Structure formats: structure tokens, C-alpha cells
């Protein structure tokens, strides 16, 4: 059964005979039949296309590769910054930085050497103190005794290989640069000369700077 209203079909006449003879379908419009439907006729069986609201499409945002890369770099930096280092890695960094030179009194040098000897870092010390004794040692060695005013003393060994020991009027203030010999409290001197006024005057300031660096170094290594 057709879904078209019969009243709508009645408005046309189909001449079947003419269609058979001519092969063309001839239809006549019947206005009476259309008026019979009424002026307010509506075909409620017809289903039209659905009316939908216009869809709004948000523009796609292209990801910013630069910001993503920067974020990855920042994460890597934070990971490296808070990474726990082993003792071997800490020692390797110390060796890369090279030899350190710290200036101070005899008391300072003995104290600092006690703190740094377990780390194993190469350190040279500059001592400004009073030389109270000079004696000849084995072969080309010269043994000196250097002490602070009313303080501890340290034995200094100087080998006259490249340069001779300068003449010193005992007692006198001298400046010595050298390293503490392993397993002892003696200093092997590489350079010895009489101290000048600036050596003595600037010693407290240079000793304070050295003490700060040594304290920081020991804190980083032992923690």
C-alpha cells in the first residue's frame, strides 16, 4: 500500500489507453479534486530532512614543539641537580678542578690538613710565620722550624735542587709554599723567601677565605 494520500492521487487522471498507443503518459490536472483537499491541506506522512543546528568547530591548535623541548630540558636539569653522587664521582670532580692553594697560619694549616687528608685532594699551603731554626738535613735538604707567635710550630723541609735556600737572619718572618708530606705533619717546601709587609697584613683575610672554602668542601664531600 502506497504511503501517498489517495486524495492527492485523485487530482490527476491517467489515460492508460493513450499511454499504450503513444508510449507517453498523459495526465490532466483536476482543480476540483485539489480544492477538495482543503486550503490548509498538509501531508503529514512526508518526512523531510532533519533540521539541525549549525555545528561549530573549534580550530585545532598545533602543539608548540619548542615549549615541549624546553620543558624536557628543565626536567633533565632538575634531575641532574638533585642526583645523588657517589664518592668516586665526587673525587673525580675534585681531581678535575686541579690543585688548590690555601693561605694561613701554622695553626690553620695543621687543622685544615687534618680535615682534608681523608678526601685525598691535592692541596698546596702558603704559610706566613716566624722561622726560628735552620739546620742541614740529609743530602741537599734543609730543615726549618716555623711557628706562630705564641702558637704551634711545624717542620719544613726544603730540598736545594733547583734553587738554594735564601739567606735568612734567624729569627725572621718567612713565606713558605709547599705540601704536607703524606703520613706526617711536615711540610715539603717548594718556595721559601722572606715575608714582606703585605704577606703579613693580608694573611687574616686570605685565611678566612680559605677556611670558608675548606668548610664547604668538607660539607659537600662527607654529606
What do you see in this structure?
With 223 residues, the protein is α+β, with helices and mostly antiparallel strands. It folds into 2 domains: 6-36, no CATH class; 87-222, OB fold (Dihydrolipoamide Acetyltransferase, E2P). 36% of the residues lie in helices and 25% in strands. The protein is built from 8 helices and 8 strands. A 5-stranded mixed β-barrel has the order 4-5-6-8-7. A two-stranded antiparallel sheet has the order 1-2.
Short characterization:
This protein has 223 residues and is α+β, with helices and mostly antiparallel strands. The chain contains 8 helices and 8 strands; from the N terminus they run H-E-H-E-H-H-H-E-H-E-E-E-E-E-H-H.
Secondary structure: number of strands: 8
Q: Terminal Cα separation, in Å? A: 95 Å
| Average pLDDT | 76
Tell me the CATH architecture of the largest domain. Beta Barrel
How many domains is the backbone divided into? 2
Report the sheet-strand fraction.
25-35%
Keywords:
223 residues; alpha+beta; OB fold (Dihydrolipoamide Acetyltransferase, E2P); 2 domains; 5-stranded mixed β-barrel; two-stranded antiparallel sheet; 8 helices; 36% helix
Q: Topology of this protein?
A:
Elements: H1 6-9, E1 12-14, H2 16-22, E2 27-29, H3 31-36, H4 65-81, H5 87-97, E3 100-104, H6 106-116, E4 123-136, E5 141-147, E6 153-159, E7 172-180, E8 187-194, H7 197-201, H8 203-222
Parallel strand pairs: 3-4, 6-8
Antiparallel strand pairs: 1-2, 4-5, 4-7, 5-6, 7-8
